C-alpha cells in the first residue's frame, strides 16, 4: 500500500521515494520528508516543532505543507484570500483525512479556516511506478457570502534543510525555445511565470532542483504543472535556510470570486525525486506522459509532411497535390495542409474565424484533395487556429464583442489578429459546432491546433465572476472545446502549436498527442532546443521536420538525423528537391520507420549535450533493452580549433551482462563494456550518424 497513516501523519511511498507530512504540536500541517524511500515507517522524521523568535511566529519557521497568508509568517504563501468583511488573513486548521486505494492511491486532507466557512482539500495521488506525486487543491465556500481568492497555488514543495541547491529552469523566445539555465539558489525569491494566457516559450512550467547532480548522478527534485495558461513557479530560500518551491496558477492580475457551492479546483502539480541525476528525472516524467497522460498513449506516430514552409499561404488543390505525390514517393504516411486553406485566407490579415474551405482555392471543398492524398496511401491532416479571429473575417463582423478587449482601449492586433474569449460559453459552443462540422464533413485524421499571439488588454465585459477570472476560465474553455471534439472524433491525432513550442505542458498533452516544438527548423539550433524540450517531455510528443531552412550549410542526412530524434516530419519544398535528395530522404524515412518504436517509446539518454561544444549524442533504448539507437552529431569546427576531438561515447541503459552489437563496430561487447569504455565515432564537420544497437544474447 503506497499511503500509510499513523498518529504523526502520513507517508506516501513510490517505488524508490517517499514523501511524508503530519501535524506538529502547533497544529500546523507540516512537511516531514521528501527523498529516498526508507526501510521502516519509523525512519521518517516527526513533524518539526521549530523554536521561534517572538516577532516571527511558528508559521514562519515551520515548513508548512500549504501556508496561507496570515499571522506572523513572512515566507511566500500558497493561498491568499479576502473574506466578505474585508479580513485578509487565513488560519487553516486540520479537520480530517481520507485515503482511497483505488483506482489510484489518493490522500485527501481536509482543512478549514478557524473562523470563516472556507474549506480546503489538499489532494495527493501516488504514481508508484513512476516515482511521482501528484497534488492539487479544492477550495470550497460553505457560507453565504462570496470570498475573493487572490492566490491559490497547486502545491508547495519543501526540500531537505541545510543544503545548498541549484535551480535549473528554461527560458526562450519565438523560434528559440527551451534554453537551459542552472543557477545557485540563494536567499530570496526567484520567480518564473507566464502572463501571456498560454504556457509560453519565455519560460517553461518545469523546475529541477539539485544538490551537485550531473546527468547521471546525484539528487534531483523536479516538477511541473498540468496547465496551459498563466502559471507561476517561485523558488524561495528563507532567512532560516528553508528551500521551498511553489507551483500553480499565476496570481498576477488574478482574482476569483468563490461563490457558495461552486468549488474551485486547481490544476495538478507533479513532482518527483531521484538519486540518479537529471537524465533519470526526465525519464520518469517521460514514462508518466506516455503511460498515463497522452490520449493515444503508445500509438506510434506517422511520418508526416507539412506544407507550411513550402507554400506558406499559397495553397490550392494543385500545389498540395503535387507536394503530396512527392511526399508519398518518399514514404510519408500523413500529409498535412497548413495555413491558407480557409475562407478568405490569402495572407495573415484575413480569414481567421471562418473555418470553411476557401471557395476560390478549393471550389469542390476539401474532399478532392483528401481523396487524392488517401489514394496515395497517406492520411490527411489540417491546420487550424480556432482561438483567433482577424478583424477582416465574417466571424468578427458578426461578433465583434466576442474578442478579449477593454471597450475604452484600442484592440491591439498582433499578426493582425485578436483573441476570442474562450471563457465565454457561446464562443466555446461556436467553436465546437464549426470544428465538429469540419471534422464530420471531411475525412481528417490529424489536426494541428495553432495559437499565434499572446494576450493584451485582457478585458471581459459582463464576466460571470471577477473579470480577472479570465486567465483560468479561458483555459477551462479551451479544454472543454478540445475535450468535446476529442470525444466526438476519438481517432483524430492532435498537435499543439503556439508559434512553435509555446504550449508544451502536461495540461495540453491530455488532449494533444504531439507538440510542434519550434518554428526554428535549422538542424543545428534544433539540437539544443530538442535537448531542452526533453527535460520534461518525451520524444514521442516532439514533432520535428526536415526543411530547407539550412539546406545550404547542413547536409540533408544530418537534418534527417536531428529530426529522427523525435517524431519525424518533412517540411521542405519537395518540388525543388533533387532526385538524389528524395532518394536519400526515402532511405532515412525507411530507417526511421524501423527505429521509431525505440525512439518514440524507449528510454532517452542524453549522452553529450549540444550546449557544451560541437559534438552531441543522444541514445534511445527499448523498454526491454533488446535494442537501441545512437545519434551522434558534429557541428562545424573551424580549422584553427580542429584539435577538439570527440571522446569515446559511453552508452547508457543497456543490460550489463548481455552482449550487444553496435552498428559500425566489428566486435560485440557486454552492455557493461559499452557503458564503461564506450565507442569511438569519427566524424568530420557537419557529419552525423544513426547507429543501431542490437542485443545478441
Ligand atoms: C505558426 C506555426 O508555428 C507554423 O508552423 C505555421 O503553422 C504558421 N503558424 C502558420 O500560420
Features:
eight-stranded parallel β-barrel, 12 helices, about 700 residues, alpha+beta, 36 strands, binds (2R,3S,4R,5S)-2-(hydroxymethyl)piperidine-3,4,5-triol, about 30% strand, ten-stranded antiparallel β-sheet, globular
Question: In words, what does this structure look like?
Answer:
With 697 residues, the chain is of the alpha+beta class. Helix content is 20%, strand content 30%. It is built from 12 helices and 36 strands. Strand 28 (514-516), helix 9 and strand 29 form a beta-alpha-beta unit. Helix 9 (523-533) runs parallel beside helix 10. It is globular and about 80 Å long. 52% of the residues are buried.
Main sheet attributes: strand count, strand direction, barrel closure: 10 strands, antiparallel
Radius of gyration (CA) equals 26 Å
Structural class, from secondary structure content?
A: alpha+beta
- Molecular shape: globular
Q: Helical percent range?
A: 10-25%
Q: pLDDT below 50 for ≥5 consecutive residues: which ranges?
A: none
Report the sheet-strand fraction.
25-35%
Mean pLDDT: 97
The tally of helices reads 12
How many strands?
A: 36
Bound molecules: (2R,3S,4R,5S)-2-(hydroxymethyl)piperidine-3,4,5-triol
How many angstroms separate the termini?
37 Å
